[in-house]
Amino acid sequence: MIFFRLVVHLFTQITRPRRLAGMMLLASVPGLVAWLTISNARAGSGATAYMDAVTSVSGGTLSLAILVLAVAVMRDERDGGTLPFIFLSPIGRLGFAAAAWVAAAAAAVLTAVVGWLVGFVAVGAVAGDWAAALPVLPAYVIAALAYSSVFVPLGYLSSRATLIGLGYVFVWEGILASFIPGLSSSSMWRLALSALADLTSLSPDASQFLGTVVPGLGGAVVKTAVVIALGIGVLAWAVQSRDAV
């Protein structure tokens, strides 16, 4: 019961209407781009336009939306001065870390699903292909869960978590991992794309973007579970070692 109440409290804090609406709009950019692109397209070409928008744009827009939400889980409580009181509740540090991740992941998945729905409607209603966007949903969910696992502990460990997160998304994932093959496996977006590549055909550029990451839905799910466990573990360790009470 305490765990559930804590999750609800943290989720409510980070999903304030204006913030949530802004992040949902940001996550919807690929779908909006596809909507504009395929407004006069035939079925088939519209699906291609949407997939190109997802693989080229979502790595920045969706990850940024999740970054803002996930970092806020710890930052909002710290800034509001309520974090020490939460630590006084009868819940272990591991339980607290898990609750923080669940709250962030729930907000991230909600945002990702809304972003996906915009693309789903664009391809379905405008281009007439209601099945083309379906493979993107699992990839978006995987991205939401994986990014949350990285950004929640980051939000506790650093007061500049947003800046560091931006560096991770645009410099590490966008540039370094593109030129250094060994870094590909550290990219959460490439992890999500590996699931998408197993469910549908990607463009040659998108396939090359994967680098050393092997396409596969099952492998992506297992890797995501590992990332989640590591993220919760790191946060629990950080909270325990800092003893913020």
Structure commentary:
This protein is mainly α and 245 residues long. The chain has one domain (2-242). Helix content is 79%, strand content 0%. It starts with a helix and ends with a helix.
Any chance you could write out the topology, listing elements then pairs?
Blueprint: H1 2-14, H2 17-27, H3 29-37, H4 45-80, H5 83-87, H6 93-126, H7 136-157, H8 161-179, H9 188-199, H10 204-209, H11 217-242
Helix pairs in contact: 1-4, 1-6, 2-4, 2-6, 3-4, 3-6, 4-6, 4-7, 4-8, 6-7, 6-11, 7-8, 7-9, 7-11, 9-11
What key phrases describe this protein's structure?
245 residues; mainly alpha; globular
* Low-pLDDT windows of residues: none
Average pLDDT confidence is 89
Main sheet summary: none
Which of globular, elongated, flat, extended, rod-shaped describes the shape? globular
Q: What's the total number of strands?
A: 0
Radius of gyration: 18 Å
Q: Which structural class should the secondary elements be placed in?
A: mainly alpha
Residues in helices, as a percent range:
over 70%
Order of helices and strands: HHHHHHHHHHH
User: How much strand?
Assistant: under 5%
Number of helices: 11
| Overall domain count | 1
State the end-to-end CA separation.
22 Å
